[in-house]
Amino acid sequence: MASYTRIMVLLQLFFLSTSSTLIDFYSTNHANSAPLQGWLQRIRNGQISVDGTITTDPNALLRDGSQLVYHRQPWTEPDVPYLLKILYEDEDMIALDKPSGLQVLPGGLFQQRTVLTQLQWWASKQSSSSVHQVPPPVPVHRLGRGTSGILLCAKTKVAKTRLAAYFADGTSKVLNKRDINKGIDLNRKISKVYRALVTGIIQEDEVVIEQPIGMIQYPGVAKGLYVASPAGKPALSKVIVLERDVKGNCTFVQIQSGRPHQIRIHLATIGHPLLGDPLYVSGGQPKCLDSDPVDDNFAQDGGYPRPMKPLPGDCGYRLHAHQLVLLHPATNEVIEITAPIPSTLQTPQERQCKTAHTS
């Protein structure tokens, strides 16, 4: 996929109940995109039009029903892996094998080089060769940019609604210790198992982790960062040790998914963060908790500069969505999907068996 530069145009329609100035509107409603000085810079650069006319006066009054368009400056998106393998597909859904480093939904620097954009491109290509327009599949859950493996997407509105409900319902339910130790997960209509590589040697063969997960304010993460917190929502994980690499001082484990970043946080909580995790350290907290000054700090395009601290989307950790079992959203049939384990997450024994098989 060749490198390219895109200009993002954000179109917004607003019906203002009271009169407001251009700078007041953007600095109040879109403070996550840029600080006050950043929006002043964008307006004076002629990047915002009101009702089709470029407006450089920050104090211009807006009327009810004003049409505002913000023209984002050109930027070059970083190179990413883009190969998406299809693991399963029918009329209602499609399961993809997402590579590590590819973002699922547009955000930040990645607006075009995402899974969603590829799905839209696939659909447009099918529509051009078909009489009927083909709607693009839509991801019904997210995988972190650095996480590889199974990504489930819906091809119909009914499938989207039901699959999203499966994930939401599964996240809200926490099994008790007795059930999770028995491997019983009857309350969930969808269950996903991950392969992970953690730092250090886990001595026990199985570990059950009970650690609530909450949120804190964190620079560069508008909605807050998930961390281990006594005041957070309950979360329970069962870790199964697959193999210990004493020489490499790391452990290969299997673990089920749950709340956002639950795997990364829970493994860090027990002193075994994911190998290469740039964000979470022992205790389930970020490496840095102090805040970056951002009030008077803005980048060349007016937005916030990237924080010096690591962010949740940073890659480097070893995590792979390996298996998925779910009730089909249309037929209620039990579907099992498996994504091949990447070489970086294969145990020494698996690599040895693979070498022996190919030789």
UniProtKB/TrEMBL annotation:
Single Gene Ontology MF annotation: pseudouridine synthase activity
GO terms classed as biological process: enzyme-directed rRNA pseudouridine synthesis
Signal peptide per UniProt: 1-20
Reactions this protein catalyses: a uridine in RNA = a pseudouridine in RNA
Protein name: Pseudouridine synthase, RsuA/RluA-like
Domain Pseudouridine synthase RsuA/RluA-like positions: 93-268
Provenance organism: Dillenia turbinata
Keywords: RNA-binding, Signal
Source domain of life: Eukaryota
Family annotation (InterPro entries): PsdUridine_synth_cat_dom_sf, PsdUridine_synth_RluA-like_CS, PsdUridine_synth_RsuA/RluA, RluA_PseudoU_synthase
